[in-house]
Amino acid sequence: MIKKIKYYLYLTSLIFDKHKFFSKIKSQNDDLESKFLQEFIKKIDNKSFIEFGFHPLEFNTIHLMTSNFRGVLVDANKKNVLFLKILGFFQNYKIKVVDLFLNKENIVQVINNDYGIFSIDVDGNDYWLTKEVLESKRNFDLMIVEYNSSFLDKSITTPYDENFNRHNKHESGWYHGASLKAFIKLFNKKNYGLIKTTGGNNAFFVKRESLNKFGFKELTFEEAFEESKLRNLWSKKNAKEQFDVIKNLEYINI
Fold first, then answer.
1. What is the CATH number of the domain that holds 111?
2. What pTM did the predictor assign?
3. Which residues pair with 55 in a beta bridge?
4. Contact at 8 Å (CB) between 49 and 71?
5. Rounded CA separation 165/170 (Å)
């Protein structure tokens, strides 16, 4: 309890100290995603973003928020949501923060506009939620999804469960989302091409018609796949060893 109180007091201190807040924030993987997005947004007309799943001090679009681009942030953690609502108010960011546990029905309702950049990382129904968004015919210049490198080169996803919680599904926390190959197949149906991965978890897609415009080359699975550096580090197991732990659980082949 004391540790939690100290953490919340620490977060509160960041609300009123912009310099301190800026020194602590980042995206995953040593800020690689954030640096890429800050350059990418200069190339597009729709300079806005929407991100599903965030930590108060770490999410892909965090430096777009602090650069005062317009955006929407969605998460089911009430404390994370409250912190960013208060932060946005006191630091005058152009963000809307939504407290919502996502499912196939409500995710499209949240996306009431076209956004330049879409990002999702909810450690659960990521494949099925992204599928709903792609079928909604909303337009994005760039879409970022988190793939599960523990699923190796298999084209699989976990079955849809409206109340998905990866730690309830398996004690390892490795059973969630979808493989990179499954996401490539999904985006291929909507004519999006893979252009980048970072850290063995984030995959970036743009419409094929925009590849030349943005100066990107479409990547194959073999060119782009990498194992999750962070997961391998803390688990002391490589992706194959991770999959061996969860291989007997239920999967859907894509």
1. 3.40.50.150
2. 0.94
3. 58
4. yes
5. 9
d(CA 18, CA 113): 30
Total domains, the chain: 1
CB-neighbour burial class of residue 209 (10 A; exposed 0-12, middle 13-18, buried 19+): exposed
List of residues 6+ apart from 176 with CB closer than 8 A: 123, 124, 126, 148, 158, 164, 166, 169
Give backbone dihedrals phi and psi of 98, rounded to 5 degrees, phi first. Answer: -120, 130
Of the candidates 100, 122, 124, 125, the residue with the CA atom closest to the CA atom of residue 111 = 100
Residues 194-207: tens digit of each pLDDT: 999 999 999 999 99
CB 119 within 8 A of CB 144: yes
Structural domain boundaries, residue 222: 2-253
Which tokens go with 82?
Answer: 């409250």
What secondary structure letter does DSSP report for 247?
T
- Which tens digit of pLDDT belongs to each residue from 167-193? 999 999 999 999 999 999 999 999 999
Measured distance CA(201)–CA(145) in Å, rounded: 8
